[in-house]
């Protein structure tokens, strides 16, 4: 990447596919961003750029690259593919650029030293924890095969609820249909995979709406 392109991207600011980090002294936080990009639509991570779009660069980019590479290898499961490059921004400073493609092996997790793991996804300019439903959608959506399901009473109640509401949550659907939360969750996941519904992840709670493709049929 040329410095000119780097400056153009920085000028646009952080977003769904772009994240800035001034330093690498908290690699565990940077690993979350890497996982979120891999679990979503991919993205670029600039280390040496501030949230205010200041391009300061890193004095020892080689050491920062080593630290981050080690953290990515240690704390991400399953392993991800990504590219690294150093862009000189002055005579003694570089910006480290990590390019993370959308993964076909998602969900990827950040695994801490105790073995606990958490998946992250990218929503606008934030990396948030993935809900149970999002993890299932990622896991079961790896293949391109058609999803089949039986349209029964609970699905009919869901369609009725969506006629009344712009969006539904797992808990709202479970209460309306009088079914256990786990069954409501699985029903929504299957209907997202069948492209009847769309999921809209949020930090607090995911929302589900009718898909545009299904409405146009």
TrEMBL record:
<dbReference type="GO" id="GO:0005524">
    <property type="term" value="F:ATP binding"/>
</dbReference>
<protein>
    <submittedName>
        <fullName>ATP-binding protein</fullName>
    </submittedName>
</protein>
<dbReference type="Pfam" id="PF04326">
    <property type="entry name" value="SLFN_AlbA_2"/>
</dbReference>
<dbReference type="InterPro" id="IPR007421">
    <property type="entry name" value="Schlafen_AlbA_2_dom"/>
</dbReference>
<feature type="domain" description="Schlafen AlbA-2">
    <location>
        <begin position="14"/>
        <end position="130"/>
    </location>
</feature>
<keyword id="KW-0067">ATP-binding</keyword>
<dbReference type="InterPro" id="IPR038461">
    <property type="entry name" value="Schlafen_AlbA_2_dom_sf"/>
</dbReference>
<keyword id="KW-0547">Nucleotide-binding</keyword>
């Amino acid at each position: 990447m040329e410095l000119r392109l780097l400056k153009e991207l920085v000028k646009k600011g952080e977003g769904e596919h772009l994240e800035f980090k001034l330093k690498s002294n908290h690699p565990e936080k940077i690993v979350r961003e890497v996982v979120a990009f891999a679990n979503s639509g991919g993205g670029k991570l600039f280390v040496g750029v501030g949230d205010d779009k200041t391009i300061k660069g890193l004095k020892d980019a080689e050491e920062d690259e080593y630290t981050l590479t080690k953290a990515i290898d240690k704390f991400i499961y399953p392993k991800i593919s990504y590219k690294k490059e150093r862009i000189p921004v002055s005579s003694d400073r570089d910006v480290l650029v990590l390019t993370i493609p959308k993964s076909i092996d998602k969900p990827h997790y950040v695994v801490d030293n105790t073995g606990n793991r958490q998946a992250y996804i990218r929503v606008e300019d934030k990396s948030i924890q993935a809900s149970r439903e999002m993890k299932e959608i990622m896991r079961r959506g790896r293949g391109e095969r058609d999803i089949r399901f039986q349209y029964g009473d609970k699905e009919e109640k869901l369609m009725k609820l969506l006629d009344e509401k712009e969006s539904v949550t797992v808990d709202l659907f479970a209460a309306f249909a009088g079914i256990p939360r786990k069954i409501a969750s699985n029903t929504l996941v299957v209907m997202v995979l069948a492209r009847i519904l769309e999921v809209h992840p949020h930090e607090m709670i995911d929302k589900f709406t009718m898909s545009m493709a299904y409405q146009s049929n």
